[in-house]
Amino acid sequence: MSVNRVTTRTVPEEPEGVRSPLRGRDAELAFIEGRLDALDRGEGGIIRVEGPVGIGRSRILAEAAAAARRRGTRVFEGAADPDEQFVPLGPLLDGLLSGEEPLSGAVRLRDLATTPGQRFWLLQELGDRLRETARNGPLLVVLDDLQWCDDLTLLTFNTLAAGLSSHAILWLVAVRGGGVPSGVRTTLDRIRQAGAHELALGALDDRAVTRITEDVLGAAPGPDVRRVVRRAEGVPQLLIALLDSLREAVTIENGTARLPAGPPAPRELPSVVRRLDRLSDEARALVQTTAALGGPVTVALLAERLGRPSAALITAVRESLDADLLIESGDHLAFRHELIRETVEAGLPLPLRQALRGHAAELPPGSAASPVERPGPSTARAAADAAEADRLRTAAAELASTAPGPAAERSLKALELTTADAPERPRIIAETIPLLWQTGRAAQARELGTSALATGALGPEDEARLRLALARLAVPFDFSEAVRQARAGSALPGIPVDVRGRLLAMLAVGLSMSGEHSAAERVAAEAWETAAAAGDRSAEATLTTVRSAASFHRMDLTEAFRQAERSVALADALGVSTSLWVPEALWHALLSHTTGRSAEALAAAEDGIRITGEQGRTAATGMWLMTRSRILLEAGRLTDARADAEAASVTTDDLGPGNLADVTLRYVMMRVALHTDDRQTARAYAAEARRMRSDGAPVVRHFGSWMLALMADFEGRPDRAMAELDEVMTSPAADRPAYAGLVDPADAPVLVRLALRAGAHERAAQAVALAERLAALNPHLTFLAATAAHARGLLDNDLAPLVRAVRLYEDCPRPLARASALEDAGRKLAATRTSEAVPYLDTALALYARAGAERDVARVRRRLRAAGVRRRPSMAGLSGAWPELTAAEIRVVRLVAQGLTNQQVAEHLSLSPHTVGSHLRRAFTKLDITSRVALTRLVKHRDSGA
Fold first, then answer.
1. Stretch among 187-201, 218-232, 924-938 having the lowest mean pLDDT
2. For a tag site, which of 384, 558, 573, 895 has the least CB within 10 Å?
3. Residue-averaged pLDDT of the chain
4. What pLDDT score does 694 carry?
5. What would the mean pLDDT of 294-301 be, rounded to a whole number?
6. How many CB atoms lie within 10 A of CB 445?
């Protein structure tokens, strides 16, 4: 190359290790600086940086980390790698535990991460360590390439970000735009709902492109250089790679970069080559063939050139799309960027390129590779795909009742083989949605359904079936959304009678679960007629459950139980996969417990957890765990109830816990916290209750109100407690819950006591009247008679009904309710007959201690001391050798010390592995140990009596 020594020079090499300035992102950097200012003031939060491959996400994160360090902020940086997704929690742990200043306790945390069954303990430890570190100054946690993160990393990030939202921790995450795995999309949806700030990176403008060109080439670009760099379309990674390839061809004349010999031939760009090298052999061959063929191509043509059936390319196509090399263009595949195609083609041997190009040139107009006309696959190929899709749908239907996971995969494959305009596609989507939900992929199911509805080109029947599937999907998460979908579907004109009947049944279920009882009964009456006309036994099973709930609301528990048994029998006869509300047995178990049949309810819950776990029904397992946590709470097994609730909260579906968790998990955790005097946890769930108060479903609002009332009473503010119940106590009689939104009648005395403390005698009398009416309507249920007597004794300050309640409670499996009546009777007696009061208070103390209700124990001790009696701390429910642990924790600890895994312990004790993990984590905390080896040594030591 000739160089004029005065006016002409070559492009200088970039100095080793010197990074060029970041151009075109001034607004984004200013926003991040603003969030760092807020972080310095103690305000944490989440920033999500999103954009396509090569747009500069990682560079933004690096600049943010550097800016934070300049301020003295402690920074942790982690990044996911598509080749290391098999390492659970790897990206987050690498960020927190590596670097110059890792998080404290790094060795212990790494040990927990590699020990099976320690997920819950690891989450707790990570949260504690971050919380402790944030107390000493603000933290920035950076996590790059979220789309490659494993499920445990996603779960941990979401859990920690939510649980530490009040601390000075700023989470900065980057994710590729466009299609991402369903688990990642769910995480993005959750952090958006939590108030995450979003930075969407787009292409650079011409000014930024020019400045980057000057940075790389050392001179302003001339017109010919500008024409070449415009081909990068403002994508920084492609722009830099393109400019690097121009260095040898550019000459700088009088301060302007020019291409005297014209644009160079296309060359391989290193960033594209790296992405291509990560592909499997099959996907790489597909991308290379697409590049050689030139314009957008159909899968049918690729299959023909590669000698494979179209269905066999599904995985390779998905991998190529996930790598962001190819994109969907109608029913064709095309390269995301022409520079990518040129790079791939440049890496192919010349004979292969010529052979493939020759084939494309020989194709007649209108063929599969024609850039002008792009029809779909050939008639023969389309017929083969349609036949295969039908076979897969049949297989999915056969597997649905026993193996929903494989059924879902077959249904998804059938969907992939079905073209976008195929008339059967909406029905396949409707079939796929419940299968995805049952296997824990609710977010993917919802996205499928909402995307199909958004096309706006559906007939009434197709739309109705989709809305039915979405209504079923919404029931556990959003009662109001279930109502909306079912109502919209049932109103569509000309739909089949069986589809309308099922939509009306789902509408009745949604209204009933929302707490809109009168509306639910009206809809159910219409639905019965429609279901009868269609001969639909599945809708009948669902509507029988609604009838049971209506009978319960009318306080006819005998009829409620009879209808619940009938609904379970119908659902069992039909098979769970055909049931519209999975499973009806959940309601039957809760009703059994409410009517005093706790052993039967627990057995049903344990069977439900075991069976659904064996079948891979993730959603149903979570629902059963929630149900059992509620039963265990009211059975006085507080430790077990909390363990189940914690387990269920971690295993909830990818749409989040939702309304069902509001009225089970959150309620259980708050009640346990109040009984155990755990103020921090109680306050956390009171914050959740305030959110629940604004929910669209009346029952969720009622539960929120009751939780807030209990919290106010806990804090010694009875007037505030009554104010929290204003909406519930004054709601329309037709939909008013009997006891402030609760299913459990045992809380009637609690409400009476609360109202009396606030001087609200009329409200106390209202609660007593309801309790007595319920008992009178159901005279065979001793538990209800005990509750009514207890409430009456409190209202009238009369010893006789309190003593009667104590006697009636003796035959009821409600130890906390019995202890409460004993305490109230003892309190009344202590005013005049101290010696007679002591046995009542002693028995109450023993029951509370056995349940682990520390706050109640402390209160009864005070009453005994006031009566002149001092009792040593009770060992009820505890072991002399293990005073720190509950009986449930001791059972788990002993089996683990014998070498059993969490799964084996779960099978031995008829618990879920999640519940075992929760017990073990708490035992480790109480015993101040960190491993199973240490636990085994401790068990041997204590059992030896040393």
1. 924-938
2. 573
3. 82
4. 85
5. 83
6. 29
pLDDT surpassing 70 at residue 94: yes
Render pLDDT for 465-482 as a digit per residue (tens, 0 to 9): 999 999 988 887 888 888
In whole angstroms, what is the distance from residue 870 CA to residue 858 CA?
A: 12
Report the DSSP beta bridge partners of residue 79: 144
pLDDT tops 50 at residue 362: no
CA gap 40, 71 in Å, rounded: 9
Q: Has residue 738 got a pLDDT over 70?
A: no
In tens, the pLDDT along 112-141 reads 666 644 565 677 778 888 888 888 899 999
Nearest CA to 229 among 260, 264, 275? 264
Residue type, 698: P
Q: Starting from the edge strand earliest in sequence, which strands make up the sheet with 197-200, in order?
A: 74-79, 139-144, 169-176, 45-51, 197-200
Closest CA relative to residue 744, chosen from 664, 678, 805, 643: 664
Which three-class secondary structure string do you get for 722-746? HHHCHHHHCCCCCCCCCECCECCHH
pLDDT at residue 316 in the model = 85
Radius of gyration (C-alpha) of the chain in whole angstroms: 33
Residue 209: other Cβ atoms inside 10 A: 24
pLDDT at 576: 53
Question: Residues 6 or more apart from 204 whose CB is under 8 A from it?
Answer: 23, 24, 212, 234, 235, 236, 239
Higher pLDDT, 189 or 367: 189
Q: Is the dihedral of CA 382, 383, 387, 390 positive or negative?
A: positive
121-135, 234-248, 372-386, 669-683, range with the lowest pLDDT: 372-386
pLDDT at 816: 93
The pLDDT tens digits of the residues spanning 740-790 come to 344 578 889 999 999 999 999 999 999 999 999 999 999 988 999 999 999
> From the CB of residue 133, how many other CB atoms can be counted at a distance below 10 Å?
20
Under 8 Å between Cβ of 648 and 636: no
Which residue has 């076979």 as its token pair? Answer: 391
Question: In angstroms, rounded to a whole number, what is the distance separating the alpha carbons of residues 82 and 99?
Answer: 21
Question: In the chain, what percentage of residues exceed pLDDT 90?
Answer: 26
The DSSP annotation for 82-105 comes to GGGTTSTTHHHHHHHHSSSSPPTT
User: Structure tokens of 687?
Assistant: 């914050």
CA pair distance 814, 593, nearest whole angstrom:
10
**φ/ψ bin of 561: left (φ > 0), alpha (ψ from -120 to 50), beta (otherwise):** alpha
What does the alpha-carbon distance between residue 386 and residue 376 come to, in Å, rounded to a whole number? 13
Q: CA 696, 764, 590: angle at the middle one, nearest 5?
A: 50
Which residues make Cβ contacts (< 8 Å) with residue 927, sequence separation at least 6? Answer: 884, 885, 935, 938
For 850-909, what is each residue's pLDDT tens digit? 888 989 999 999 999 888 887 765 444 444 567 777 777 888 888 888 888 777 787 777
Where on the phi/psi map is residue 56: left (φ > 0), alpha (ψ -120 to 50), or beta? left
Examine residue 583 and say whether the peptide bond preceding it is cis (omega within 30 degrees of 0): yes
Q: List residues bridging with 175 in a β-sheet.
A: 50
Residues 108, 125: Cα–Cα separation, whole Å: 9
Instruction: Report the amino acid identity of residue 556.
Output: D
Query: What distance in Å separates the CA atoms of residue 840 and residue 833, rounded to the nearest whole number?
Result: 12
Mean pLDDT within 335-360: 75
Residues of the chain with pLDDT > 70, as a percent, come to: 87
The secondary structure of 569-610 as a DSSP string is HHHHHH-GGG-SSS-THHHHHHHHHHTT-HHHHHHHHHHHHH
E runs forming strands in 570-722: none
- Dihedral sign computed on CA atoms, order 464, 469, 472, 477: negative
Closest CA to 330 of 289, 295, 361, 364: 295
Distance CA 148, CA 764 (A): 57
Encoding tokens for residue 708? 């807030």
Helix-strand-coil percent breakdown of the chain, rounded to 5?
65, 5, 30
The conformational region for residue 814 under phi > 0 = left, psi -120 to 50 = alpha, else beta, is: beta
